[in-house]
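Chain X:
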Amino acid sequence: MADIKNTQKVASNNGAGSAAQAHTSDQALGQINRDMEEKAAQERAKDLKLPYVDVGLFPINPDILHLVKEEDARKGGLMPFSKSGKNIRIAVTDSTKPETQEVLKNLESMGYKPEIHLASNVSLNESFRHYASAQYKLKIDTKNVVEEKEIKYEKELENLVLLKDKIAALPSEEALNTLHVSAIKAGSSDIHYQPEETECVIRFRIDGVLHNVFSIGKDVYANLANQLKYKAGMKLNITTVPQDGRFRFIVNERKIDVRVSSIPTEYGESFVCRILDSGKHFGNFDELGFSGKSLEVLNKASELAQGMVLVTGPTSSGKTTTLYVLLNKFNQPEVKIITLEDPIEYHLNGITQSQINEKRGYNFADGLRSILRQDPDVVMIGEIRDLETASACAQAALTGHVVLSTLHTNSATETIPRLVTIGLPSFMVAPSLSVVIAQRLVRRICDVCKKERPITPEEKEVFEKTLTAIKSVDPSVAVTVPATVKVQQGCEACSVTGFRGQMIVSEVLYVDNEVKDAILANKSANDIFAIARKKGMLTMYEDGILKAIQGHTTLDEVHRVING
């Protein structure tokens, strides 16, 4: 019996040995086949004049994988394996596949520059294991973070305050994405990172007003700052001079551009991120807040065959939005439109947009001369900063083009002496200038929670005085002093601020023949203002008071933005 057991044991051991040998043999054969496939891939790469990579053996950072979904990577037969700034290396088995081309185009639309490397099928399949790594699964897909129908600032701030305690444990890129996506949900135009002695304060600008969100420790902020600079293509080792950068990410299929500015401060680098949402709706002039004769003049301006239209006001007064609405009015198949911007804030379909680069000598004046050789009908110049640019704009307007641009002045009529002060002679200003728009932004009262209360004696006095001045200029204005006024309350929809959105208050100067004669005679801004008043032009302050009387905003809000 013992002999039988021993015989069975020996046979069992021999079987196990044979299985082990067979497994070893399979491994060796598999390695030989893999080596042969890699050699074949190398030869094919040489024939196609492409770099080769054995991506299965490449140590891939899991963060890079979030640029391409696993299903898209498998379907397209590709794998992102290395990234430096906006340059990204992609391993592919066949670069001509439509699915591969689609992924590459998506990466390019996000601002990346893909560099193709050829890989074998076996090494590519091996690389897909990285999608199963624990580090990769820590990442939250930013495409699904935002729910478009849930834009509640108070709720977002509450979530961010709760996030404060967890942010140190998150990967820095994910922490940064969460902050930026929450800012988008809150309707923020800017994110401010303000370092102080022991912490960094994070603030959102909502409807033109800054709100504190929360503070984070200096060590956490250091990691966020490095990630922000890396994403924006800024120099990580430079902290003592100002820098500018830009990056893009996608939320709910919308491309979000983030423009980053840094300056050195006593307690470290301070960053401001301007959020530029490609899904932004620019609307019409009346939706922006233009009304009455101002609206009539702007509608005429969108039908100009030649001439210069200038929008003036301080930073963050909505000048770019007004220009973009004008551009959209001009944007027809038979009209060629070219813009010169610094930087390009929003990408517009059907319009050729060009980015100024002062460091390389591509400025507004030289750029305008270049684009005029492109046979445009309408050109937009981001800003008139000097005589050279002003002269080029005037020349373009005088030679049959519509020119749109911005300038920094306090009122519409002050724009004319400003151009002359720059050095543009009045005999060029008069015939080239068609319309000047001066504007500011005020916050709209929330429609959900606004209430009415009796008007105060002080409000009544301001309204009566202003309406008397308005009706002396434009008797067609039918508004009367109300018995009650709309006031802000605060609710969930407006995040308890009482305001939701902004609107433009403006004054619009139409440069007709009488105004042109005054310019040629070197009349003062006051003289030109008197001529414009006779023709019904209201001031920004008067426009703001009308909007307060009509219940769109409050008297305090008008006084906050404009000196009466």
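Chain Y:
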Amino acid sequence: MIVETFKKFDANGDGKISKDELKRVLNAISASSGNCSNQQAAFDDDAVNALLQASDTNKDGFIDYQEFVSWVTQDMKEEEAQQGGSFKPLDKRGKFQLEFRSLLPERFEVNVNDRYDMDKLQIGEGGFGKVFIARDKQFSDRKVAVKRMKKNPRSAGKGAGNADLSNFDEEIKTMKTLDHPNICKLLATFEDKNDIYFVMELCEGGEVFDRIIENGFISERTTSIIVQQVCAALGYAHGFKIAHRDIKPENVVFCTKERSDLRVKVIDWGLACNFLDGQMKKAVGSLTYAAPEVIDSKDRKAYTEACDLWSVGVLTYVMLCGKPPFWGDRNQHFKAAKAERYPFRDEPWDKMNQHAKDFVKNLLKADPTQRTPIASCLTSPWLATPPAEAASDESKASVLGNLKNFTAQSTFSRLCITAVARQLDHKHLGDIHKVFREMDTDGNGVLSMEEVRKGISAFGDPEAEKNIQALFANLDMDGSKTIDYTEFCAAGLGEKTCQQDDVIWAAFKTFDIDNSGYITVDNLKEILDAGDVQDIWTTDVCRQVADEIVAKFDKDGDNRINFDDWQKLMQGCWNKNNPSEMHASDLLAKVAALDLGS
């Protein structure tokens, strides 16, 4: 087999392999695996040179037959010594379904200021906390939003910034659960003696409220685009039996400062409630946007998630005309809301699109059961899908190639890549986000088997279509029967994104649970234990795997993984695309299968 493989490289039969001959075969391997797009070479000169230098022992610029044999047999010996080749410690112990939500770092008695430099000027203030911009001390250009909340109301006094501890737990649980393109992503939490800090992705475009103040109102077209995204986020949350309970212009923010970019995210889930666990009775939220049944609940009468629908109606009304539908003191406001009495005939309503008026009118119903259900809101003829730049054919091909590569990765590699995806914000997910939105035809924030099938079909890849069930099963890491946003983003990430130092650092800190600057066996064991959806592994197995991982990647022998070790580990996730580190048995099999023609 080695002789025949060498001959396939040695196209001119001169008994040695040149750089061009090496590159020709390697790119034929990549093309046969679907890793090339638009005839662009998968292996650049640097990558080919790396393999050439590793094999060319006499440094004459060629690989002769003896050098080829020496390289292959040495690599195969190393594989045998590693008991089967490429490092796949998790795969040896059966199916591991990963709960990606467990990859949220929660740090206790760890000083957030050791990790971030926080601006003194706050950018927002929610019901229970103040929000600041912060910069990662390791990579200052990596900015996040940090919400600081006081743990002890009695010692801190009254007012914003104080909350019952149960509120913190509920908000953390809620934000860990919700994984949607239009919901602000929670990246980590820190807790010390006095405060809890929520580290979130930074949406720099400001609040919808600011746009209303700036312009007096928001155009009908823009309003419909923004409200569509809010409804998509709420529809997803309600599917998890979670109500927001404080929808208002201050809690809808633009992702970027670019005025033409109308992507928004729903923030501040501090008043959110899981209505599956119990009835909602608290009179919470802002009076202007609160539903009549919430105002009248008085902590005794139960209400439903339809309270969010009323708030969407008020939000839409305010955006379109710049004024609230109800005003006056609490009693006057409540009476007008119960009577559904609000201005709707004068300017600008007399010239407003009838679909827009119907949308508002059918949400501002005092009887919650009469309000338009969230699913029907999403199919409203008035709501407009956000104008997203279509992903290029090259981007689609790249994402598809990454999806296929991801399913071939070891479980541990997928765990590491998913940790990267869990820490990425909207700025890093441009092309992947576009492809996801194109495939998510019903806009519910997850991909069904049929949506994935149609999306793959549109890519025009018969091989992927044929293996769609296996592909779907591998992408569905938590076994939920749908592809969540983070699962898709993890699979769609390419090596280029995953190898950015700031991105690798963010993932490293996911595993560095105690913020020590190292990943220990105990850290890994805790991550594996938390991520094992079906509890397949015992505690002993989790520790065994953690020991194996540290032993493999700890280069200085201190029984822990530092950041340099982690960078090499992350690079190892992509070795299958790196010819200088390609395993000999894999290379021989791939070359043997090639039909290179004449």
